[in-house]
Amino acid sequence: MSIERLDKIEAVLKSKKIQEFEIYFVEKSIFETIFLKDKPENEREISDFEYFIRILTQKENKTGIGVVKGNSLEASQIEKNIDTCVLLSKINSSSKYDFPSKVSISPITTADKTILSDPLKIKNNLAEDLIFEVRKQKDVLPTFLRFRVHSNHSYLRNSNDVELDAKKTYFFIEFSLKAQENGKLSEFWNEGYYKEKEHLNLNERVSSWARKAKDTLTAVEPKPSDDAIVIFSPSVLKQAINPVIGVHALGKAHAEKISRFNIGDVIASENITIIDDGLLEGGLNSNSWDSEGNPHQITEVIKNGVFQNRLYDQMYAMLEGKQSTGNARRAENGTVVNGMSNFKIAPGDISFEEMISNIKEGYYIEQFSWLNPEEVSGNFGAEIRNGYYIKNGEFQNPIKLGNVSGNVLEMVKNCLFISKEREFTENTLFPYMAFKNLNVSS
To answer: pTM higher than 0.70 for the full model?
Structure first.
């Protein structure tokens, strides 16, 4: 069916004598259960599709790129979309750009066959498992739960004979738990996407979230320090590393002269190695090809603290006379942007427990209310939502509401410890990491 839809769009493009074009077509299915408290409130099944058309107009040493998004296959609407795309390609202008050509790409598995064969059964079983684990918890009550199974099928075709498709399945969880004691009330609410069933780890995840809800009842503001040792959880680390290191490593940032990184520079502690892995098993952004049709690959970004390689999509690779590293991503409006795929940080040589035991005084942050570092400067300041004060190698008491501030670009130069344990958080596989010289205020 989808191939026929692609054929239909391509036929109109060719009838209008469009020489350089690309069609990116995505079918999406969502299967969802929503609970109010611990009772099912709503079941939803949604199936939809959308497509993006890109058309190029070459202008000597420049290229005009038109992009349109469509969700109707009516012939008149397709024609209207193409006409708009042609017009945009004539009035826009960027650096020289060509669509990728056909190359050999080895497929990787990014979809669970059991989900593809019966997504509703998988969703129902896992939703039941989730609510079962929630009901087992003592001293907490659920207020809201949402569980979804996602199934996507993406197709890419361009005028250079590129013809690709890929299937992907993944999960989404959102739920809140409340705790009450002596008239005090607290609630822990979190959400996340998870690529594999084993990443859901419902027993441990629900128990952890229940503990956070209960610990928040007794949490206090942290003791202030202007030279603090702070441990970031893998999920917090993702929020710090991706927007800053991920941006400065891009070919786009280098071309725009905002990257602080030069090849061969020492930019982090020698115990830090970061790899961009577009083929990472279990990575949310894993695929055999990027959103332009170039092969995804494994690129060493930082090795033992030294910056090794930039991440390129087709446009910025052409601009600098390089080869694409498969780092093109598709924005919601259909434009192609230069971006990281999956980041993984090499594990350290001590356990998380050993890391704690090595700290005389410090802080462990499981979650911030927000963490939005400024991409170029790396500066951040974030309120603690859930964490612990560390004293003499042990967790002393829960903390909340205080603020941690610093600079990500400086922080990675002050890494004390990296754990052996690593955890998947969407498109990252990160350990726990301890940094010095951060500021903690109450």
So the answer is: yes
- In order of 44, 129, 317, 328, the CA distances from 61 in angstroms are 50, 58, 15, 22
Query: Cβ-count burial of 256 within 10 angstroms (0-12 exposed, 13-18 middle, 19+ buried)?
Result: exposed
Are the C-beta atoms of residues 234 and 425 closer than 8 Å to each other? yes
Q: Are 299 and 276 in contact (CB under 8 A)?
A: yes
Task: Say how far apart CA 76 and CA 81 lie, in whole Å.
Answer: 9
pLDDT tens-place string over residues 228-275? 999 999 999 999 999 999 999 999 999 999 999 999 999 999 999 999
Domain boundaries, the chain: 2-215, 220-442
**Entry field: residues in the chain:** 442
Q: What CA–CA distance (Å, rounded) separates 361 from 166?
A: 49
Q: Are 79 and 15 in contact (CB under 8 A)?
A: no
Give all strands (DSSP E) within 234-283, no chain letters: 274-277
- 2-215 architecture in CATH? 2-Layer Sandwich (3.30)
Query: What separation in angstroms does the CA of 213 have from each of 34, 223, 378, 382, 397?
Result: 21, 21, 31, 20, 14
Q: Which amino acid is at 400?
A: K
